[in-house]
Design goal:
about 700 residues, mainly beta, 22-stranded antiparallel beta barrel, 5-stranded mixed β-sheet, Maltoporin, Chain A, about 5% helix
Length: about 700
């Protein structure tokens, strides 16, 4: 019996042992009740509040309905007002740099590690932790749950940044049949059609989408078609199962990066090598998943799920003839499973769970001539698996007090097998990664709708296959997993007074890491990176979201609705031999985003939006500074029972700014590393529900 088989057997034994003490969670959701609530004004309805309030740490919930009233083409758009998150888009809609609590602050968007992405509780992040070219469509979800940092342990998220779980709409829970269209600047248009229904014990919902964009830069076109479908069967009064099917065909050009002088001269230009080499990011994705729920009795249930995904990548990314060119042509296959058992017994609410994932990557790296010959240089045959076990108890030990404690066990393996075609030499770094990550927290209910919370948790994140492959040493040595401890305190809640209401969510955290895995863009082969374990680092910050709905007349028909999201970051080396106490690059010192809407009871709304972003460094040496920026815009719309329209003006001042960039050890003044953000743009959209 091999190591993983023994681990699975131990997990099953753990689940059986917990049966007498556990209660069910929604399939793949956080350990709490199923959420079917929408946002009502400023306040969360009871079911949604119960989901959030079961966690002694920062958790944000993004409602899909709200996304259809502004221009949303990427995860960066979706997470715009989520505190603690730095998400930036600059290439095309699907290319988003994502960092939560300082994850992924390195060669920037190369493998997108540090945050575990799930759909209906089943992973779309690979088993090794990478999100490379992952296609997640915010408009295909009913809501998203963003569990920041160690608050995602019960997702099996061995990641510094936590997890995001995208919950699909269904015909049974109110997923609408609808037609949705939007379009605007730079040739963007998007059409979406959804239809579904319920018949007895059966229900089904299917959505088909097409999206096109010319982009605001040269060589930035995108064409994407996708289909999302799910069908449910009520097998018995207490047993239901649901199947999910996803197909995505995404072709996009990449405009590359600019030097500072090129950015100043024309931020809409493309990198010359990107045009000459026809840099692209073409991905074909097919995914099938199933989730089954057994409500054993009123206090317990069992959830089981499985998913399989096949993703083909065609990715010309480096073209510097006659010295070097690189085209990546690989197929990635991901298998994911989950099993959760939960029971409420007296003052205890115990969850036991198991997640297992397996990923293989096959194909090769090629030298190429655009539109001509391709020659394989390296054969790639990589693999990873990851097993997570967790046991969590929520003990209500006093009327207003709940203790939340438990642990997660992680066992994973990584193997990179690269064969140099010209010499037959094999590079084969491989390693096993095992850890037990305890967590303890407490929740103090101040009222029925407000809380204080605190927790101390262990952080743990093994390397991805890309990081092992890019190890600066270039031999068969393997990187260590990063480890650390984080403490967090905060408060959240909502209150109503007269005809007004307000809500808040504030968290402060301080974490110390040892062996954080960081990478820099290889100056001799831009587009590839060099990875290493560094010494000690600090990840600390303040996250706050505050909003209100304020009546400006006696009847409450006219209202002002301010919303502000504030993120303050302190990410830095801690006495490093090379970098002393330098700041970590890529994430800004602060990000303040918000809006002030006027809303009328008839359904009309309008108001300004703003983004205030602080300064960043583009290198570990802190010699290359990227300026902060301030953007402002306008939103307006009208909502009725069956239809709605919106308009959004972004970057109204036409400010030239840097969205994200590649990270260097010490960036030269003429380094081609900058990705510009979008100039002034206007978008409109409409939806009809039937």
């Amino acid at each position: 019996m091999d190591r993983n088989t023994r681990a699975v057997a131990a997990a099953i034994a753990t689940l059986h042992a917990a049966i007498a003490h556990a209660q069910s969670a929604p399939g793949g959701a956080l350990p709490s009740v199923t959420v079917e609530a929408e946002r009502a004004g400023d306040q969360l309805l009871p079911e949604l509040q119960a989901e959030r309030d079961a966690i002694p740490g920062a958790v944000s919930i993004v409602e899909g309905e709200e996304l259809r009233l502004r221009n949303v083409t990427s995860v960066a758009d979706m997470l715009r007002y989520t505190p603690g998150v730095w998400a930036a888009s600059g290439s095309t809609g699907d290319s988003t740099f994502l960092s939560i609590r300082g994850s992924n602050l390195d060669a920037t968007n190369y493998d997108g590690n540090g945050v575990k992405l799930l759909i209906d509780g089943l992973p779309v992040t690979a088993a090794d932790g990478n999100n490379h070219n992952r296609d997640v469509d915010p408009l295909s979800m009913r809501r998203a749950i963003v569990a920041r940092g160690a608050n995602a342990l019960t997702y099996g998220a061995s990641t510094l940044g936590g997890a995001i779980n995208f919950i699909s709409p269904t015909a049974r829970d109110g997923g609408p049949s609808e037609v949705f269209v939007n379009g605007g600047s730079f040739g963007q248009w998007q059409g979406r059609f959804s239809a579904g229904g319920v018949s007895g014990n059966l229900d089904a919902l299917v959505s088909a989408e097409a999206k096109r964009s010319d982009g605001f830069r040269e060589h930035q076109k995108q064409e994407r078609e996708s289909v999302y479908a799910n069908a449910g069967i009520q097998l018995a009064p207490t047993v239901s199962t649901r199947f999910y099917v996803t197909g995505i065909d995404n072709d996009q050009q990449l405009p590359g990066a600019l030097t500072r002088a090129q950015f100043d001269a024309d931020p809409r230009a493309a990198e010359k090598a990107a045009v000459a080499g026809n840099y692209r990011l073409n991905v074909r994705t097919a995914r099938l998943a199933n989730r089954t729920v057994w409500d054993i009795d009123e206090n317990s249930s069992l959830v089981a799920g499985i998913s399989y995904e096949n993703q083909s990548l065609y990715h010309p990314i480096v073209y510097a003839p006659p010295y070097f060119s690189l085209l990546i042509d690989t197929t990635q296959r991901n298998l994911g499973t989950t099993l959760r058992y939960q029971r409420r017994s007296g003052d205890h609410d115990v969850l036991a769970g198991l997640n297992y994932g397996n990923t293989t990557v096959e194909g090769g790296n090629y030298s190429y001539v655009p539109g001509g010959a391709q020659k394989i240089t390296t054969r790639v045959d990589n693999g990873a698996d990851n097993l997570e076990l967790f046991l969590v108890d929520r003990w209500k030990f006093a009327p207003q007090w709940t203790a939340v404690y438990g642990a997660q066990a992680v066992s994973g393996s990584r193997e990179v097998r690269n064969i140099d075609v010209s010499t037959g030499a094999v590079r084969n770094p491989q390693g096993d990664y095992d850890s037990i990550n305890p967590r303890v927290g407490v929740i103090r209910d101040l009222s029925s709708s407000s809380q204080l919370f605190a927790n101390v948790s262990r952080l743990y994140e093994p390397p991805t296959l890309y990081e092992l492959d890019d190890d600066v040493r270039g031999n068969n040595a393997t990187l260590k997993a990063m480890r650390g401890v984080v403490a967090e305190v905060g408060t959240r809640g909502a209150t109503v007074f007269d005809r007004n209401s307000m809500h808040w969510d504030v968290a402060l955290y301080y974490g110390r890491l040892d062996g954080e895995i960081l990478s820099i863009d290889d100056p001799n082969a831009p587009g590839t990176s060099l990875s290493t374990n560094v010494g000690k680092t600090i990840h600390a910050g303040v996250e706050a979201l505050m909003g209100a709905s304020l009546a400006v007349d006696d009847a409450g028909a006219h209202r002002l609705e301010p919303l502000v999201s504030i993120t303050l970051n302190d990410f830095k080396f801690d006495g490093d031999a090379n970098y002393n106490n330098n700041r970590l690059p890529a994430a800004p010192r602060y990000a303040v985003r918000g809006e002030l809407l006027y809303r009328h009871a008839s359904g009309f709304f309008f108001g300004p939006t703003f983004d205030i972003i602080g300064q960043r460094y583009a290198d570990f040496s802190n010699t290359y500074e990227v300026d902060g920026y301030t953007l402002w815009g306008l939103r307006a719309g009208y909502t009725a029972k069956q239809w709605e329209v919106y308009g959004e003006l972004r970057n109204a001042g036409d400010k030239a700014y840097v969205s994200y960039f590649s990270v260097r050890d010490k960036a030269a003044a003429d380094a081609a590393i900058l990705t510009p953000g979008s100039p002034r743009a206007l978008y409109v959209g409409a939806r009809f529900k039937f």
